[in-house]
Amino acid sequence: MSGISRIAIGQLCSSSCLSRNLQTVKYLIGKAVDKNVRLIFFPEATDYIARNAIHSQQLAAKSPRFVEELRTEIRELCDRKSKKIDVAIGVHLPPSESEVVRGEQRVKNVLLYINYRGEVVQSYQKLHLFDVDVPNGPVMKESNSVQPGSKVAEIVETPVGKLGLEICYDIRFPEQSLELRSKGAEILCFPSAFTMKTGEAHWELLGRARAVDTQCFVVMPAQSGKHDTGSGADASQDHVERISWGHSMVIDPWGRIIAQSSLSNDCSSEELIIADLDYTILEKVRVDMPLWEQRSAASRATDQQLFTF
Description:
There is one protein chain. The protein has nine helices and 17 strands. By secondary structure, the protein is α/β, with parallel strands linked by helices. It has a single domain (4-306), classed as 4-Layer Sandwich (Nitrilase/N-carbamoyl-D-aminoacid amidohydrolase), CATH 3.60.110. Strand 4 and strand 5 form a beta hairpin. Helix 1 (18-34) packs parallel to helix 3 (63-81). 45% of the residues are buried.
């Protein structure tokens, strides 16, 4: 890739209402097309934020329709505007029939890459699940409701560069990002729904670290604000209040923030954040500091041993 490539982040505060979330997504894609954006990124769980694990399983049954309607909208919008825009979006998918037969009821947390024709070009299932007890914060055990993926996604050839797909908690495991860089990545994305506690402490730090580690552009689309998950939590599980950190940003390969949200972290409004990726910066960073050429055979072998699933 060379020259300037325009991307955007669609920051939003998803609710438990898929149709409402889809309308927000459509609105942001329309704005991005008018600003000549070639690829727009949406956060993790854009289709819905649930009250708890049982609620998530119920809502996931509606996610395939969410995806199909979005694919149709992308195709029709691009035809109507005579422009092209691709979409990377985090959604849930229900377990397959064979998985249900085996007793697997948990949903899948996936990142879909949809091109301007409405075709799903790539799907990545989140590898690392957020199972933590945050000091003075919520106890989160994503594995109660989400089944983990099993492999790193292949690089996606996009109109704005070679893209490596990751999701949220994956950002804490640099081996995955290094593997994607080794596969040719020029951009890494981390669609997320960070908690307030971890976001304040580590959101920017982790993004800039992965950019410097890999000498890639890092795109961080975030859920932001207090989520409306509806009323009537299931009696079998407590209703967990969900508030996301926000602060979507784009970071260049030198670790500089080149675009970010202008909204406060308690704001639940949607926002379009535009960034122009300058590939002369990427090329200069990689030439001036040739990390990949300098990495010894021993270090590469060590990385391979560490990066196992």
